[in-house]
Each structure stands twice: as structure tokens, then as C-alpha cells.
């Protein structure tokens, strides 16, 4: 069973690659077929599959099969989870007024 840190890392791994950020930008307009993403990204199918696997495992993107192609879209729930996660791990405790020294 994955730890909470490993689950968090999946989300940030999905966001830390420029190609995956480009894919997310392409998906802003709605669902896209893998064939369209391959053309728009100018990458081989195997490379796209690798990036989509990471995006889907993070929960930020979902895919649905349609014949031999998969259609991808940004998951509203996954997007909200990623935003909440970033807020959670970067929150500053206002009660901690004492500065720690190194």
C-alpha cells in the first residue's frame, strides 16, 4: 500500500514535466483522442502512452476507450484534489511565530 507521500508524489510527478504540462494545456478545451494528441504533440504513440499513464495515475486525467483509441480529459475531481494538495503541503502555520534556527 502506497504511503501518503507516495500518493502526493504521483500528483507532482504528473505536473513536473513540460510535455505533460503541454498535454494538460491541450486538454483545457475538453476531451481529445490520443490520435489528436499524438499529432499536436508531434510525438510517437509510445511516448504519449507513457505520459498519459503518469497523468492518469495521478488522477488529474481520465481516459475512456473508444475502439482502438483512448480519449482523454482533465478530471474535475482530480484537478480539485491537486489544488487542495498543493495548498495543504505549502500552508504556513500562523501559530508558529517562533523562527527555527539551523
Walk me through the structure.
- The protein is of the alpha+beta class.
- 58% of the residues lie in helices and 14% in strands.
- It is built from 5 helices and 3 strands; from the N terminus they run H-H-E-H-H-E-E-H.
- A 3-stranded antiparallel beta sheet has the order 1-3-2.
- The longest helix has 15 residues.
- The protein is elongated.
- The mean pLDDT is 92.
Topology:
Blueprint (H helix, E strand, L loop, with lengths): L3 H12 L2 H10 L4 E2 H8 L3 H14 L2 E6 L2 E6 L1 H15 L12
Antiparallel strand pairs: 1-3, 2-3
Helix pairs in contact: 1-4
Describe the structure concisely.
Helix content is 58%, strand content 14%.
User: What value does the average pLDDT take?
Assistant: 92
How large is the share of residues in beta strands? 5-15%
Strand order of the largest sheet: 1-3-2
Q: Major β-sheet, in short? A: 3 strands, antiparallel
Give the helix level as a range of percent.
55-70%
List keywords for this structure.
single chain, 102 residues, alpha+beta, 3-stranded antiparallel sheet, 58% helix, elongated
Amino acid at each position: 500500500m502506497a504511503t501518503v507521500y507516495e500518493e502526493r508524489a504521483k500528483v507532482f510527478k504528473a505536473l513536473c514535466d513540460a510535455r505533460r504540462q503541454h498535454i494538460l494545456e491541450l486538454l483545457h478545451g475538453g476531451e481529445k483522442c490520443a490520435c489528436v494528441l499524438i499529432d499536436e504533440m508531434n510525438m510517437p504513440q509510445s511516448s504519449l502512452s507513457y505520459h498519459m499513464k503518469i497523468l492518469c495515475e495521478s488522477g488529474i486525467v481520465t481516459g475512456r476507450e473508444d475502439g482502438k483509441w483512448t480519449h482523454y480529459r482533465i478530471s474535475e475531481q482530480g484537478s480539485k484534489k491537486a489544488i487542495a494538495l498543493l495548498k495543504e503541503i505549502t500552508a504556513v502555520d500562523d501559530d508558529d511565530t517562533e523562527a527555527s534556527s539551523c
